[in-house]
Amino acid sequence: MKAGFLILFLSASILAAQGQADPEYKKVAMERAEKIVAEVEPALTTTTRNNARDLVANQYIALNSIHAERDRQLKKEGANNERILAHADSVVATQHDKYVTALQDLLTAEQVESIKNGMTYYTVPKTYNNYLLMLPFATEEELTLIRENLKEAREHAMDGGSAKEKHAWFNKYKGRIANALASKGYNLKEEGERWAERRDLKSSATYITESSSIMQKLALSDKWQAEQVRNLLAFQYQKMDAIYAHKKRQTTEMDQASLGDAEKEKRAVKIWEESKSALDVQRDKLFEKLDPLLTEDQIKLVKNEMDNIL
């Protein structure tokens, strides 16, 4: 009975708090909403822009009121924490659904996506692009897994009461992504280390100097396109270095083994064939990824530049 009274009281308190929001916070919410909507689509009509701004601002105000009342109730001695938290979460979920529906009635799907990104520091596109660079040869299935998990995290993060809470949701889902990719054979720690190496443009490593040389000749003006291409080229050189190193280890082991001439020649041919096959497969993967990013002439330039080692 007491728990039921607390929940009813919390609901009534939240509704009252929404109508009594701090004027200073209302101002902050309106400014924040104005900025988010302005970044969505400058060509929106004045009426649509203002309506969208008001929806976003009112959502911030509603969430702030819900969180504030929840925290006030939690501080009360003898309050049932679990029930208050569960009820507050339920109220937030209802508010979230109403808000998203209102946005969808007013804006296009793409514009709604932009609003959601604006409310979560554009973490989805930024993080997704980082995965693209860290795992340049990820399959479409793997990229879909990454993208959908990030979007699901965003739905929760939108309702967070602080930047810390928002980022916590993304960290939770990045953990899920890591586990899912680990089951597919990825080691994200190692992949992250290799990606860090590819970003060190001051390095004298072959994968930096050679990829940078090709990029100078391509002279791409679009920064995101250029970063994707440079990253792919650097990754290609890294993979080739790994293939050559594996071939060298196998050759050393062969030379140290007690083999007859015929067996040694047979083993040498097998090592060479496996190495050549691995290089050919990697080469095909590279140009499959470069195809949507570069013109036919630009791809020819890359092939010519890499011809002596591909």
Could you give a quick summary of the protein structure above?
The chain is mainly alpha-helical.
Written overview of the protein:
The protein is 82% helix and 0% strand. The protein is mostly helical. It has three domains: 2-119, no CATH class; 123-186; 202-306, no CATH class. Helix 7 (140-157) runs antiparallel to helix 8 (163-182) and helix 11 runs antiparallel to helix 12 (261-290). The longest helix has 34 residues, at 223-256. The chain is elongated. 23% of the residues are buried.
How many beta-strand runs?
A: 0
N-C termini distance: 76 Å
- List SSEs in N-to-C order: HHHHHHHHHHHHH
Q: Return the average pLDDT rounded to an integer.
A: 89
Q: Quick one: biggest sheet? A: none
Provide the helix percentage: over 70%
Total separate domains: 3
The low-confidence runs, each spanning 5 or more residues with pLDDT under 50, are 1-18
Shape designation: elongated
Structural class based on helices, strands and sheet pairing: mainly alpha
Radius of gyration: 27 Å
Strand content: under 5%
* Count of separate DSSP helical elements: 13
